[in-house]
Structure to design on (341 residues):
């Protein structure tokens, strides 16, 4: 008998994770123990918990004694956002694999995981396609003033002039540079090249030959070249120690006055004060951002006073199918690993 523990939350209930667990290709019958974490909270209340979890990590949260007892005999653990903390891992002496049905791993103590050579972590980018679609939509909305015009029309104005008037051009004329070529970055690249745009990218782990073999029309460049050469720079990085405040004045000052910065990834990869200064002094044509350092946005946020930035409310991955199908995507990825074992 193989023991599997699933821990759900207000977004992905334990019952959904249990269905995925039943489909795991394990050699012996599966015994599933299911728990729901923070189940009493509404989704809006749980979003506040997510903010803390993503910012501070998993070790500030307590799990019930029942969960800790269950993981002590478990070989597999499936979660969405439940914290996989140092304390939980200390109890999980038999654990072989942790599966999480989201892309970010802020809720898992990876430093503690790495201490065990037998333990692996499997994650899935549940909303890669929605985020990629939104990213391109945000590019259009920013570059072509769709958002700015819509806001002003609703306020009773009929704008014909915008801060980027000197740089307005057809979308297909733009050169787009992607910073990060994970699942989302690659989908964005495919969509943009299909639209006829020239796409380049920076990714520390990507190889030109491999990309060409996979059919991607992407030219790899250095980070500095991406910022100096591109008309639109789009960020697709995770937050790790090496990427915090990576996008700072030294890179922003390389951008053309006609260039745009798009961020649907994480706010902490940009040095906040440097971006605000850059936009305030109109050193670039504009920016489109879906993620902020403080959410919901504070009334005194300096970006709100600027006319060259489009701000959306962290909704890039928010589609009805993305979260619902995430346990099935996780099951598929875990089975790929299990079949190779």
């Amino acid at each position: 008998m193989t023991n599997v523990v699933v821990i759900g939350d207000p977004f992905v209930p334990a019952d959904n994770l249990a269905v995925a667990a039943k489909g795991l290709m394990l050699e012996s019958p599966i015994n599933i123990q299911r728990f729901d974490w923070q189940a009493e909270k509404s989704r809006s209340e749980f979003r506040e918990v997510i903010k803390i979890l993503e910012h501070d990590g998993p070790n500030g949260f307590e799990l019930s004694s029942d969960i800790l007892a269950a993981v002590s005999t478990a070989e597999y653990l499936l979660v969405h956002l439940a914290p996989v903390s140092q304390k939980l891992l200390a109890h999980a002496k038999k654990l072989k694999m942790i599966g999480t049905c989201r892309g970010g791993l802020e809720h898992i103590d990876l430093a503690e995981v790495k201490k065990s050579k037998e333990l692996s972590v499997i994650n899935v980018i549940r909303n890669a396609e929605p985020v990629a679609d939104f990213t391109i939509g945000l590019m259009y909305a920013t570059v072509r003033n769709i958002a700015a015009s819509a806001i002003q029309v609703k306020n009773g104005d009929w704008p014909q002039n915008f801060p980027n008037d000197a740089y307005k051009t057809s979308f297909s004329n733009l050169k787009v540079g992607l910073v990060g070529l994970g699942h989302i970055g690659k989908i964005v690249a495919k969509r943009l090249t299909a639209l006829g745009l020239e796409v380049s990218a920076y990714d520390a782990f990507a190889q030109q030959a491999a990309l060409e073999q996979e059919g991607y029309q992407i030219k790899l460049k250095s980070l500095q070249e991406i910022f100096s050469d591109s008309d639109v720079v789009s960020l697709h990085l995770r937050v790790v120690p090496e990427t915090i405040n990576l996008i700072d004045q030294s890179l922003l000052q390389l951008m053309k006055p006609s260039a745009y910065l798009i961020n649907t990834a994480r706010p902490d990869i940009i040095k906040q004060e440097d971006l605000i200064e850059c936009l305030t002094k109109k050193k670039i044509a504009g920016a489109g951002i879906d993620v902020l350092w403080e959410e919901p946005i504070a009334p005194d946020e300096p970006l709100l006073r600027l006319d060259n930035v489009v701000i959306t409310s962290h909704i890039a991955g928010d589609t009805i199918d993305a979260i619902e199908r995430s346990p099935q995507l996780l099951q598929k990825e875990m089975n790929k690993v299990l079949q190779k074992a």
